[in-house]
């Protein structure tokens, strides 16, 4: 294990028992529909698959899905959720992706998980490995937040109320290093059981940087949307869904 993977595995193992409950309000159906339309007969590969939030509904479209994730505990949750869906998941580092002779019609990374690679070098390597694992004409899809100023990018730190009821308080505490492009968060929850901390650390990537890294990896931007419903992307978009296509021989 390398230090970056080790750090992410440790953080996401903490999230694993809470992850699905924390994200129950994020409907994965539009993502699964979008990805199924690109996967065709498949197979598909999800980088940072987590508990299978998107991979499971995609597999239920009849697409065979493989998942890779840093956290053994997130994968255990996926296995508990799996049922008879055609999905296999294994522990590993998406920066070190190596699928041997197997090629995929679709590789995707959702919910800003690409940012968990923590350095530009690891992000470039991940794209190069993914491009190599794609069949010619295959697609690489990334869903990620668009880093923007003013707001977090302008300040070094922020404390925000996420949720407040008569039984609990959820806060999110953030620090930001604009030089390394690293955000460090803690999600804090206070309730009758006490206090719980859920940590996140990520290196965000600007769209221009992502496109440059993808081009260097042999991937061509073919579509970009504001959401999984294919809404056009505008200056007010807070996230992007970018579709890159593997063109040319390798
Ligand atoms: C926010 S969760 C996303 C899970 C799932 N894709 C979803 O959309 O719900 C981020 C996931 O990235 C995984 N991760 C972080 N660094 C990774 C790496 N280097 N290789 C593979 N997975 C990684 C974490 O273990 C965690 O499960």
Question: TL;DR?
Answer:
The protein is built from six helices and eleven strands.
What labels would you give this structure?
Rossmann fold; 11 strands; N-terminal domain of TfIIb; 2 domains; globular; binds S-adenosylmethionine; alpha/beta
Number of helix segments? 6
Q: Tell me the major beta sheet.
A: 7 strands, mixed
Count of distinct strands: 11
List the bound ligands.
S-adenosylmethionine
Over the alpha carbons, how many angstroms does the gyration radius reach? 18 Å
Determine the oligomeric state from the structure: single chain
Which word captures the global form? globular
How much of the sequence lies in strands comes to: 25-35%
Trace the largest sheet across and list its strands: 3-2-1-4-5-11-10
Looking at the structure, the CATH topology of the largest domain is: Rossmann fold
Low-pLDDT runs of 5+ residues are: none
Which whole number gives the mean pLDDT?
Answer: 93
For this structure, what is the CATH homologous superfamily of the largest domain? Vaccinia Virus protein VP39
Task: Count the domains.
Answer: 2
Give the N-to-C terminal Cα separation. 29 Å
CATH architecture field of the largest domain: 3-Layer(aba) Sandwich
Helix content: 25-40%
CATH class of the largest domain reads: Alpha Beta
List the helices and strands in order. Answer: HHEHEHEEHEEEEEHEE
Which class do the helix and strand fractions yield? alpha/beta
């Amino acid at each position: 294990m390398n230090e970056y993977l080790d750090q992410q595995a440790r953080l996401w193992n903490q999230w694993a028992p809470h992850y699905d409950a924390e994200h129950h309000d994020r409907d994965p159906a539009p993502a699964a529909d979008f990805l199924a339309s690109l996967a065709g007969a498949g197979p598909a590969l999800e980088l940072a698959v987590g508990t299978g939030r998107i991979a499971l509904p995609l597999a239920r479209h009849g697409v065979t899905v493989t998942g890779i994730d840093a956290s053994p505990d997130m994968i255990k949750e996926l296995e508990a959720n799996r049922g008879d869906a055609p999905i296999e998941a294994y522990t590993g580092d998406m920066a070190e992706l190596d699928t041997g002779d197997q090629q995929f019609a679709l590789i995707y990374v959702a919910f800003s998980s690409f940012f968990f690679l923590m350095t530009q070098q690891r992000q470039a390597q991940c794209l190069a490995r993914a491009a190599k694992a794609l069949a010619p004409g295959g697609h690489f899809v990334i869903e990620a937040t668009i880093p923007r100023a003013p707001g977090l990018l302008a300040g070094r730190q922020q404390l925000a109320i996420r949720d407040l009821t008569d039984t609990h308080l959820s806060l999110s505490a953030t620090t930001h290093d604009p030089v390394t492009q690293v955000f460090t968060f803690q999600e804090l929850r206070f309730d009758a059981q006490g206090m719980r901390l859920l940590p996140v650390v990520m290196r965000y990537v600007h769209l221009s940087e992502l496109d440059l890294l993808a081009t260097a990896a042999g991937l061509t931007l073919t579509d970009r949307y504001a959401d999984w419903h294919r809404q056009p992307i505008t200056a007010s978009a807070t996230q992007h869904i970018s579709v890159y296509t593997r063109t040319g021989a390798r």
